[in-house]
Structures are given as C-alpha cells and as structure tokens.
Design brief:
The chain has 117 residues and is an alpha/beta fold. Helix content is 30%, strand content 14%. The mean pLDDT is 93. Bound molecules: S-adenosylmethionine.
C-alpha cells in the first residue's frame, strides 16, 4: 500500500461530507483520503486534490480517480490553493471542507531512491 492513512474514518467524519458538496484534499499522496471522500460524495459532489509530488500525480491518473468526473487533481503546492481553486471556478466560500494530511507518506520514506532511508 502507498500510504495507510491514520484516523481515516475520524477525519472523514469530521468533514461532515454533504453528498453534493465541494471538498479539497490538500495532500493527495496515495489517494486514500480522497477515495474515502469520493465514497461519501454523490454524483453532484466535487473533490479537488492537491499534491506537488510526481508520484502522487501518477497515482491520480489511475483507478478509481481517472475518469471520475467529480475528481480534479491539481499538481501544485497547496500554498497556491486559493488561486488554483479560483482558476477552477471555485472561489472562497464555495468550498465545504478541506482535509490536509500533513507530512511525508510512508511510501516516500520506504522508497530508498527518494533519499529518506
Ligand atoms: C501523509 S501524505 C498524504 C497521504 C494521503 N492522505 C493518502 O491517503 O494517501 C502527505 C502528502 O502531502 C504532500 N505534500 C506535502 N507538502 C505539500 C505541499 N506543501 N503542497 C502539496 N502537497 C504536499 C506530499 O507530497 C505527500 O504526498
């Protein structure tokens, strides 16, 4: 597994996800939390996922994210979140919740080429 999210259910519960709401995963990584958010969204919901890591971007191109029209991946540092969301037509006030799982993922530590081990 790319990364096992901690407090998975608790963090999703804390977002109080409305099926038609608009949410942001600021740290997509392996997409564990994003998968959970999409699982609670209805057909009209939307999820914007940010990550600045190339491997995370590659994960976002795969199932179940690829082809899911409710999902938009933004390959960017979340410091640009406000501006990027504006570009996507989602100004402040239109976002129902933001999840940030800060830090490195276990994948980044476990992959020697990345230099952490
Ligand atoms: C702990 S992992 C997230 C794991 C994710 N919640 C999951 O379920 O797989 C943190 C991720 O945040 C990303 N990240 C860290 N700082 C970032 C930043 N300033 N902007 C965008 N992504 C960032 C890292 O590249 C990493 O993929």
């Amino acid at each position: 597994m790319y990364h096992e999210p901690v407090l998975f259910t608790e963090s999703l519960d804390a977002l109080h996800i409305r099926p038609g709401g608009v949410y942001v995963d600021a740290t997509f990584g392996g997409g564990g939390h994003s998968r959970g958010i999409l699982g609670r969204l209805g057909d009209n919901g939307r999820l914007y996922a940010f990550d600045q890591d190339d491997d995370a971007a590659a994960n976002a191109q795969q199932a179940p994210f690829a082809g899911d029209e409710r999902f938009v991946f933004v390959a960017s540092n979340f410091r640009h979140l406000k501006r990027s969301l504006r570009v996507e037509g989602q100004p402040p006030g239109t976002i129902d919740g933001i999840l940030a799982d800060l830090g490195v993922s276990s994948y980044q530590i476990d992959t020697p080429e990345r230099g952490f081990s």
